[in-house]
Amino acid sequence: MEMLKAIAIGLPLTVLVTILALMIGTVVALPIVAGLRSRNRLIWLMSRGLVDLLRGIPPVVWLFMLYYGISIGAVRLSALQAGVLGLGVVAAAYLAEIFRGAISAVPKGQWEASSALGFHRATVWTRIVGPQTARAAIPAYTTFAIGLLKDSSIASTIGVSEIVFMSSQYARQSGSGILVFFVAAGIYILLSVPLGLLSRHLDVKMRKAVAR
Amino acid sequence: MEQLMIELNPQTTQPVVQVKNLAKAYGSNVVLRDVSLSVAEGSVTAMIGPSGAGKSTVLRCMNLLEQPDSGEIVINGHCINAGKKTSPKSLAALRRSAGMVFQHFNLFPHMTVLRNVSLPQERVLGCSREQANEKSMELLKRMGLADKADQYPSRCSGGQQQRIAIARALALGPRVMLFDEPTSALDPEVGVEVLEVMKELASTGMTMVVVTHEMAFAENVADELVVMADGGIIEKGHPGQILKDPQHERTRRFLRAVLER
Amino acid sequence: MNNLVDVAIEYGPTLLGGLKVSLTLTILSLALGLPIGLLFSFGVTAKNKAFRYISVFFVEVGRGAPALVLLQLMYYGLPNANLTLSSMASACLALTWTTAAYSAELIRGGMQSVPSGEIEGSHALGMSYRDCLRFVVIPQGLRIALPSLMGFAVLLFQATSLAYSVAVPELMSQAYSIGSSTFQYLPVFIVAGLLYAAISIPATWLSVGAERLLSRHL
What topology does the record note for this protein and the membrane (chain C) (predicted)? Predict the structure, then answer.
């Protein structure tokens, strides 16, 4: 269908925005988690404040701030850059909370056994606690990724030509009303299916690996 | 595997509970093989045996919390046949005749103790709130728990919660009380409170079927002992006799493990 | 920084007016969406095929589609079906759909978490299926689902910021129009952002507190 083709043009950018934002979020989340677990009062306070602020302000506001509000001289962020950066930084806050929860899900006994065995801090993280954290985080991480896929639509508000941008453009030009939006919704739903399947597959695989 | 059918010397007329040829399997796992037993009015029947023997399953089939694959259950004249469909009316009547007490109490945590005991009376028996509360307070007083009436179950100890659960079941005026390991989730000291209540209940002439690991209770309070293993009844009879002189090797093995820990 | 304070003082009232609209939209969508969500939480596993298919459709689309798509569907799409609603009504309809869809799953999860022992207890007492639902499953289920529903309410409040795209005069659209007329984009959005945060952050703490309170009693 013509409609499908027109909307599908937005697909690459939807996927790109989602993946880039997810990557940025994952990387930036790591120091934030460290801050949240810090015993230093000031560092903890700043990390907590940062997470609360990033999660307390709607993504659209962050995107608008970055796109319309930031200019160094005459240089401004492109719509794509602002979109990815904004969504990535907000993702970092949510992922930091997810990782924090996953770390505390690792039984205390693992830490105790590791230090009794004399492992270095680094080894404990990379070999013992890290992998178990990753396993614990998978369900929430993939659920979040699916949510981020939908939030990528917010980038349309600053002009990124992803699915929602293309579908509203098509709607305006062709006046075919309701169907366009259902098709767009359908594409998002279809895109989230492989992610859901991947999540279940990974979960099963990792459960088998630790089956007693 | 022996299959025993008890020929009861009826103390009154009909036995209160009759189980005929009950069978149940979960897929390839056979849980009950052709179990039959009768419970006389006013008697206390204790069911013992190793885990997985099917004791709880028999009990839970009696009020159809579990659906047997074949066989018949008659409680207080209400008959349920596994092969035929049960009308909601006869199911409700059967459940009203049999009160059940669970291992984990199963009280409703979001209601006060009084409401826990009164609500079923209002909804199942159609009593008014005043009538229900009156009966509830009477029962709670009997248990020594009248002061807990307006508290929430989470504030009561395990033993208290179980006694409240017993009051809740008694409030509906059942003909028989079914106990599914009532003290297994309790500390030994606390379990004694509950066993006292059960003893008192027995002395008032209530018909009781108790699945338990409490050998002292089985020996001293029960009139009838049923030993189950591997989905079937292997011995049935007077508790003192069986415990002193078990006929079956399996029973001997089980009693050895339990009594000589 | 001066800019920020000036902007806050000069445009504060306008922005607060927008905030009021955002909150109104949030509350309306919750009030309408939660009861429908309760209905759908039963609908998705109902025996009646029609009820089930309709429920599954509404829940899957409501959860699977971005809020922006639903908003645009209601505002730009419905007129094609000869149903033209005001911007507020379209936004409310769209967000009600989102609320109903998400809350259906959250409530269903809550009801499934009710300990099975309690349900068995009520069956053993001879309580009817309906009574069991009414007195045991639904009250407990809602209680269990409450923290996540509160968390969702915060997300819904943030989602109202997208309603600017369908001409609802809420906080975001006020901020944008001030920004585009004064070119003081950054200060205005910062103030708007802080207003959103001023509601979201305490509300989130409340829901965390509710979760802690609940896990103590159950």
Answer: Multi-pass membrane protein
